[in-house]
Amino acid sequence: MLKILALGLILLQGLVQTKYSWGNCQPYELKQNFDATQYVGLWYQIYRDKDFIFEKGSTCSTAKYGPLSATQISVFNRAILENGDVYTISGRATCQGADCKVKFDWYIPTGSYNVVDTDYTSYAIVYSCSNFLFGLFKAEYAWILARTQTLASEATQIATLQQKVPGYDTNNLYKTPQGGSCVY
Length: 184
Hints:
The chain is an alpha+beta fold. The chain has one domain (19-175): Calycin beta-barrel core domain (Lipocalin). The chain is built from three helices and ten strands. Strands 2-3-4-5-6-7-8-9 form an eight-stranded antiparallel β-barrel.
């Protein structure tokens, strides 16, 4: 009984600390002809939404994707927490083109993971938006990833995010610390 109560409190805390805004998710562009076989591999997080509760305070964040089937890829996220501990979580994404749904532990709701742009070899722009209460409000997040610890064209990728996801406030982006003292 105590475990169920503790789990409920953890989930409630996550819901309370999630960034919500009024209105529903607006239409946005996905990567055309998305090829998951080219997308798999290691990605470094260059920017993330500053309000994404599960990543607050983390550094050295990476995502490793692997092929499972024609429509599914494995997901392995890794980061260093503020206290220096290594945090990892594994999951699975099911994709229809660039529109993916990612599932981690049983108690974490399925999330959207939408690739809005990538060249597969240097950068990827990912966006997630979920409507609540019939579109009365929404939770939205964005990530800019790179195949290396730095990205030469950061400003270009931020401009692309603004173009492909109208209405997303790029002031919400937080530059994830990479390199330096990171051990991958």
